[in-house]
Write a structure and sequence with these properties.
- The protein is mainly β.
- It is about 0% helix and about 40% strand.
- The chain has strands at about 15-20, 25-30, 35-40, 50, 60-65, 75, 85-90, 90-95, 95-100, 110-115, 120-125, 130-135.
- The protein has a 7-stranded mixed beta sheet, with no helix packed on it. A 5-stranded mixed beta sheet has the order 2-4-6-9-12, with no helix packed on it.
- A hairpin with a 2-residue loop joins β7 and β8.
- The radius of gyration is 15 Å and the shape is globular.
């Protein structure tokens, strides 16, 4: 068992971290993983990370540890189809967010559910590569 932090009650406790599986090209995130920092170490092929259906107040944080290999990773919600489950980022909406390049390592993405069909994406980029919404897969 780990130590109880000395600041317990005076601030945020330790952030729970989990690794997302890279055993398949589609990693599905579960509701149980909400609030944790989800670490993704990359995939040798085109890959997707699928979030569960959005709900108001639901938060997911994903950290890309390494660069994508063959195409930039797609991150979307359940269906990956705009309208059914949307990802909104920088004033545009699509079924996914995707970096403009495979140089996407070092990025931290935060997805906040604002209703039962939409996440808003906040992206801290580790490189100068931009992220955009897209409605089509790689």
């Amino acid at each position: 068992m780990s130590r109880v932090p000395s600041f317990r009650g005076a601030g945020e406790a330790f952030l729970r971290t989990e690794n997302l599986s890279t055993a398949t090209t589609v990693s599905t995130v579960s509701y149980d993983q909400a609030g944790a920092l989800l670490l993704y170490n990359g995939q040798a092929a085109a890959a997707r990370i699928m979030l569960p259906q959005a709900e108001a107040g639901l938060i997911f944080r994903i950290a890309l540890d390494g660069n994508s290999a063959t195409s930039a990773i797609l991150i979307g919600a359940t269906s990956g189809n705009a309208g059914a489950q949307d990802i909104r980022h920088r004033g545009t909406t699509g079924g996914y967010v995707q970096a403009a390049s495979t140089i996407d390592g070092g990025t931290i993405l935060t997805f906040v559910g604002i209703n039962d069909s939409r996440y808003v994406a906040f992206i801290q980029r580790g490189t100068t590569v931009t992220w955009n919404t897209t409605s089509t897969g790689a």
